[in-house]
Write a structure and sequence with these properties.
Layout (H helix, E strand, L loop, with lengths): L18 H6 L5 H8 L1 H12 L10 E5 L2 E4 L4 E2 L1 H5 L1 H8 L3 E6 L5 E5 H17 L7 E5 L4 H12 L3 E4 L6 H11 L3 E5 L1 E4 L2 E4 L1 H9 L11 E5 L13 E3 H4 L12 E2 L3 E6 L9 E5 L1 H14 L8 E4 L6 H13 L3 E5 L10 H9 L3 E4 L1 H10 L14 E4 L6 H11 L6 E3 L34 E4 L11 E6 L9 E2 L3 H8 L7 E9 L5 E6 L4 E3 L2 E3 L1 H9 L4 E11 L3 E10 L1 H6 L3 H16 L7 E4 L13 H8 L15 H10 L1
Parallel strand pairs: 4-17, 6-7, 6-8, 7-14, 8-11, 11-12, 16-17, 16-18, 18-19, 19-20, 29-30
Antiparallel strand pairs: 1-2, 3-13, 4-5, 9-10, 14-15, 15-23, 21-22, 22-24, 24-25, 26-27, 28-29
Helix pairs in contact: 2-3, 3-11, 6-7, 8-9, 11-12, 14-15, 17-19
The structure holds adenosine-5'-triphosphate (ATP) and magnesium ion.
Adenosine-5'-triphosphate binds next to strand 24 and strand 25.
Length: 655
């Protein structure tokens, strides 16, 4: 079988860091040399420099039983101590840890000293519920400070958190509670979203009522934060208000040290391509790589920067770059409860102006939705504090990258496009903003200490200019330690294909400089007349057309070509108003793609739609569009952000 992925898109723009940025950068290119000279020693040094150990480790990596890695395994530490107490002990207690902004406009400023006290109190409450090392706690909370406090309180006790995104249904919550056998659930009455209070507690009640209405499974207690002030049902004995117990608890709590491989959290993947997997992460290696990447990829100057990662804590990005990375580094950050457009479309830019955010990290889906509305919205705000912009979650189309740099970054900020996964725990491939000459649309190079490659199906490295499957060559500190309760699935999914190399499931190509360009999921690659074409490249070509706001492309079976390209596009309102006939738009987009990247990629059909099916982290679920394009019944939609959206799209397509 031919697994080479054809390489269609040309992109020649380049942006070098300014001299001044490079001069003040926290890291230099010597990091790559240090890591190349002795990779394990490089990581051992990061672990010693960035993390405080109760018992220093003497072993860096134990890979004697692959694919089960152990990092720093004879060392002990407390993860929460590393994120809190040690900063207070170092005299930074008054530094702001979190500027929290509620959707209706209320706000809270929390220093490291205050955050440390809150976590100690909460840890005492959880210990009172019988939570200790190895126990699982499910966290089903909105973006409020108690989410961070809860995660750290669980970590402080050596217990394991499983954060379930607050938008998931009671069924999804129940299956995650059951899979992990959680003893406690932490939730809220409700939270602000899109100008209204949406309730959370009823989903917990429904989840714990179980299918037969008579069992709460393994859960003994539900701790409830009051945020929405909405009415909730109450189960006496089981349910406890946060405000009744946490403020009254003692703020004395001595952190116990746990071994580096003590599990820290379970997090379920988003299910874009299959049934969600409970990804298991442990303590020392994870914290080391989260802290190292947060510092080096974002050029963090902890004493002056204000960092904002917009990810929900329900995703891995929220774990590594809202909680563990920034707090281990003693950074000051912004946390926002609501949606980007409430109560007005400039809300995010207003927050950047208000807190003088200097480092901003978000997803391409958000950038494209701002592009759709237009640059006049961000232009009303002072965004001059920004100096580094980051992207994560999907390939970023070159046109979206350029817009991000010009409109949000004032044509001066470096952009780091960071490739990683729930499984990798932390950033793996990214430019370093003071070092790398960036290329719009490319994630570029493995970070120092990480080794990635692009292989064909037989495991041979593809030459520069070629495309294939992205792998990680060597074990890395923040790597997943397994799939919760299912070691076979761990081996099968990630290690069966290439034996000693981690198979990420993503397609990628290498350009002539050896830089990495992500091409989307291998499962989504299209095969047209024997040419393997990535969805990412055709989508980028479509978005480069001035009429198109967003697009999703799938390969649908075709009698003559095997598969044919089928595109779903959202047209900018201004162009829809002008268009004489929809047929003119679709035929001009078909020829546009033909001109941009070649006749082989020319879509057989282009459908104009108002929405695309996305997961709650903003990823397009192409498998559902493929079902539609091939005339099948649409598959499982339970992890879609909006489960009605497929019906709307189906109606539009069948019209
Ligand atoms: P599931 O595995 O259940 O489908 P998921 O993979 O969507 O869930 P995540 O771990 O959140 O869950 O997403 C990781 C994936 O996101 C990567 O495998 C890749 O496809 C995509 N991704 C993340 N960052 C980037 C990036 N910078 N460029 C391209 N793709 C990215
Ligand atoms: Mg995945």
């Amino acid at each position: 079988m031919n697994t080479q992925i054809d390489n269609l898109l040309q992109e020649n723009r380049r942006f070098a860091p300014t001299e001044e940025f490079a001069k003040n950068s926290v890291v230099t290119s010597s990091l790559y040399e240090d890591a190349a000279a002795d990779r394990l020693e490089f990581w051992a040094k990061q672990a010693r420099d960035l993390v405080s150990w109760e018992t220093p480790f003497t072993r860096t990596l134990d890979w004697s039983n692959p694919p089960f890695a152990k990092w720093f395994d004879d060392g002990t530490l407390n993860v929460a101590y590393n994120c809190l107490d040690r900063h207070v002990e170092a005299g930074l207690g008054d530094r702001v840890a979190i500027y929290w902004e509620g959707e209706p406009g209320d706000s809270r400023t929390i220093t490291y000293a205050e955050l440390t006290d809150e976590v100690k109190r909460t840890a005492n409450v959880l210990a009172g519920f019988g939570i200790g090392k190895g126990d699982r706690v499910a966290i089903y909370l909105p973006m409020i400070p108690e989410a961070v406090i809860s995660m750290l309180a669980v970590a402080r006790l050596g217990a394991i958190h499983s954060v379930v995104f607050g938008g998931y249904s009671s069924d999804s919550l129940r299956s995650r509670i059951d899979d992990a056998e959680a003893k406690v659930v932490i939730t809220a009455d409700g939270a602000w979203r899109k100008g209204k209070v949406s309730s959370l507690k009823p989903a917990v009640d429904a989840a714990l009522a179980g299918k037969d209405g008579d069992t709460q499974g393994t859960v003994e207690h539900v701790l409830v934060v009051k945020r929405g002030e909405n009415e909730v049902d109450w189960s006496e004995g089981r349910d406890i208000w946060w405000h009744d117990v946490v403020p009254a608890a003692s703020a004395d709590h001595t952190p116990e040290a746990f071994e580096a491989e003590n599990p820290l959290f379970i997090l379920y993947t988003s299910g874009t391509t299959g049934k969600p997997k409970g990804i298991l992460h442990t303590s020392g290696g994870y914290l080391t790589q989260a802290a190292f990447t947060h510092k080096s990829v974002f050029d963090l100057h902890a004493d002056t920067d204000v960092f904002w990662c917009t990810a929900d804590i329900g995703w891995v990005t929220g774990h590594s770059y809202v909680v563990y990375g920034p707090l281990a580094n003693g950074a000051t950050q912004v946390m926002y409860e609501g949606t980007p457009d409430s109560p007005h479309p400039g809300r995010w830019w207003e927050i950047i102006e208000k807190y003088k955010v200097s480092i901003f990290y978000t997803a391409p889906t958000a950038i494209r939705s701002f592009m759709k509305v237009g640059r006049q919205v961000p232009q009303e705000f002072d965004l001059s504090s920004l100096r580094v912009l980051g992207s994560v979650g999907e390939p970023i189309n070159p046109e979206a990258w350029m817009w991000y740099r010009k409109v949000i970054g004032g044509d001066k900020t470096p952009i780091v496009d960071t490739w990683w996964q729930t499984e990798t725990g932390a950033i793996m491939v990214s430019a370093l903003p003071g070092v790398t000459e960036t290329k719009p649309g490319s994630a570029q190079v493995a970070i120092p200490g990480i080794s990635v490659n692009v292989l064909d199906d037989k495991g041979n490295a593809v030459p520069n200019g070629g495309g294939g499957l992205l792998v990680v060559d060597e074990p890395w500190p923040a790597m997943l330690r397994g799939v919760w309760g299912d070691p076979e699935r761990y081996k099968e999914t990630y290690w069966e294909k290439f034996g000693d190399k981690y198979f990420a499931g993503d397609g990628a190509r290498l350009d002539e400089d050896g830089d990495v360009w992500l091409l989307g999921r291998v499962d989504d690659v299209m095969n047209v007349s024997g040419h393997r074409i990535s969805t990412a490249e055709v989508e980028s070509a479509l978005v480069a057309n001035e009429m198109v706001a967003e697009s999703a492309v799938v390969g649908a079976s075709d009698e003559t070509t095997g598969q044919a390209v089928v595109a779903f596009v959202i047209i900018k309102q201004s162009h829809l108003d002008q268009a004489e006939k929809i047929a003119d738009i679709t035929s001009s987009l078909r020829s546009w793609v033909g001109q941009q990247i070649g006749p082989i990629a020319r879509p057989r059909e282009v459908f104009i739609v108002n929405e695309l099916p996305k997961t709650r982290s903003g990823k397009i679920m192409r498998r559902l569009l493929r079902d539609l394009a091939e005339g099948r019944e649409v598959g499982d939609t339970s992890t879609l952000a909006d489960t009605m959206v497929m019906k709307v799209i189906t109606d539009q397509v069948q019209k």
